Amino acid sequence: MTTHKVAVIGGDGVGPEVTEQALGVLTATTEAFGFGVELTDFDLGGDRYLRTGDVLPDEDLVALADHDAILLGAVGTPEVPPGVLERGLLLRIRFEFDQYINLRPVKLYDGVPTPIAGLIPEQCDMIIIRENTEGMYVGAGGILRRGTAQETAVQESINTRFGAERALRFSFELARGRDGRLTLCHKTNVLNHAGDLWMRTAQEVAADFADVTLDYVHVDAACLYLVDSPDRFDVVVTDNLFGDIITDLGAAIQGGMGMAASGNIDPEKRRPSMFEPVHGSAPDIAGNGWANPVAAILSLAMCLDHLGEADAAQAVTSAAVSVLPELKTMGGPDMGMSTAQIGDLIASRVGG
Ligand code: NAD
Ligand code: IPM
Ligand code: MN
Questions:
Q1: Is domain 115-253 classified as CATH 3.90.226.10?
Q2: CA–centroid distance, residue 280 to ligand 1 (Å)
Q3: DSSP letters of 74-132?
Q4: Which one, out of 6, 20, 225, 272, has a CA that is 20 to 30 A from the CA of 97?
Q5: What is the pTM of this model?
Q6: What digits encode the pLDDT tens for the residues 277-333?
Q7: Alpha carbon of 73 to ligand 2 centroid (Å)
């Protein structure tokens, strides 16, 4: 029997609440599909930081590296200054493990209310690939004359051909296996340096993928099209910050943050990939049982797929999708079921 070593970081706010449900589903899945998991819980996030001052000690990073995958809930809490946990924990893992692809499906499922009037599932089924190790997220820059009247903040976007090319090649490959359509989303009309590098690289890589049509949209127009004609997108590749922003918009059109799953992936599997809902710790609803665990459970399905358990991944997705029409809303006080009830129902359906 194959046994996968999975590290678990529940994190903050609703993070542990939705992760607990994903783990319940995972347990049901291992029983139904006959593989094993060895779970290691990592006490990381706001509580640990406030208690000890630790964000992500090197020993924890080394211990995380000894796993096949990581399941993460969410990090960030109003009690800790912005960036401490987000940069020091989440981004550090993405960077140190070189998880250079952030795979974010945007798919509207049957029975899920969308704010876009008239939108039907057939018109909303895309994958957004967010370059995950460069751009504004590198943290390059600094503050000069901090605290004085002349203070100057510089925040630089780092773009390498290597980084753009590997994200683009992955995206072309993915597009080849789907509809043969890839859209590059950037802001070449203003970001003349980074946009130029991305565009030239995309055109060069396109020469190796004659069966894929390369399209281009500016990121502002992408926001328009995501709302008024999402069917024009199938696979979208974009820079780190643009990808962050447009995938929250994508979450909205697919029914809300409780629906949006993601994987931070190292396609070469040199180090563990990390799977997490797109949403954050949602401090506004934490502790109430109102968080929708479906995003975390669909992220688990992506994790199982990455681990080579394709049938189990499919079963988890199908079980999750089957409960959606039974929910009244996709998160919040009027869902009609609690976080735990949804998780239990999905777990009960995983075996078929
Ligand atoms: P958020 O995603 O936590 O919340 C945005 C909105 O979506 C809120 O109204 C929230 O109630 C709702 N929401 C989120 N998850 C939901 C779920 N599962 N079910 C139903 N509704 C849900 O974003 P925010 O409020 O901007 O950020 C809160 C904190 O989370 C911040 O500290 C931020 O830095 C952090 N954050 C972390 C991650 C991550 O760990 N991957 C991602 C985004 C934000
Ligand atoms: C996300 C989050 C993170 C990001 C933050 C918490 C660092 O918003 O995963 O979308 O910006 O990548
Ligand atoms: Mn985000």
A1: no
A2: 3
A3: E---TTS-TTHHIIIIIIHHHHHTT--EEEEEEEPPTT---SSTT--GGG-EEEEEEE-
A4: 20
A5: 0.98
A6: 999 999 999 999 999 999 999 999 999 999 999 999 999 999 999 999 999 999 999
A7: 12
